[in-house]
Amino acid sequence: MVIYLGADHRGFPLKETIKKFLKEGGYEIIDCGNTTVDPNDDFPDFASLVGRKVSAAPEASRGVLVCGSAAGVDIVANKFPGVRSIVGISPDQVYEARRDNDANVLSIASDFINEEDVKRMLQLFLGTPFERSEKRLRRVAKITRLEDELMRKS
After folding, report:
1. Cβ(6)–Cβ(15) under 8 Å?
2. I need a labelling partner for 64 at 20 to 30 A (CA). Which of 73, 81, 112, 135 fits?
């Protein structure tokens, strides 16, 4: 599984910590930027790169996005078909989002979280399987149908 990373200037230091942590865990990482701290960068640029990559292979890839609040990158990522991005609030919440909703992008708020919680959330995000029960499959299928319907209208 490929993991795509992206962050703006506020998320950059935490993204670098995440990248090191995931590489040490043996994960294949593709860094979609930013590659330096640039106070003039814009989060939609990096979130859209990650969103496009995960959208192209939503079952075979995951994304991790970081900005100050996580809200901006989460909004952008969810514009892409097949992307189910969540703002990670706690390890327990991330676990449930993976298990129940097959979330494939994790958006992290660098201004409001510590590294220990981020590492635990990443472990759960990458290690928790989607519960393929009838109820969970039905709900994800409804999301997919809604995306398809909206794509046809645009």
Report:
1. yes
2. 135
Give the up-direction half-sphere exposure of residue 80: CA atoms within 13 A in the CB hemisphere: 23
- Model confidence at 11: pLDDT above 90: yes
Q: Domains for the chain: give ranges and CATH numbers.
A: 2-153 (3.40.1400.10)
d(CA 109, CA 73): 9
Residue 87 corresponds to which tokens in the numbers above? 């703002």
Residue 151 pLDDT class (50, 70, 90 cuts): confident
- Residues contacting residue 67 through CB under 8 Å, at least 6 positions apart: 7, 8, 10, 11, 43, 47, 73, 107, 109, 110
Strand locations in 8-142 (E) = 28-31, 61-67, 85-87, 105-109
Tokens read off for 115 = 């590294």
**What is the pTM for the complete model shown?**
0.97
Residues 87 and 71 sit within 8 Å (Cβ to Cβ): yes
Structural contact between residues 76 and 43, judged by C-beta atoms closer than 8 angstroms: yes
In this structure, what token pair is assigned to residue 131? 């519960």
Residue 92 CA to residue 113 CA, distance in Å, equals 14
Residue 51: how many other CB atoms lie within 10 Å:
27
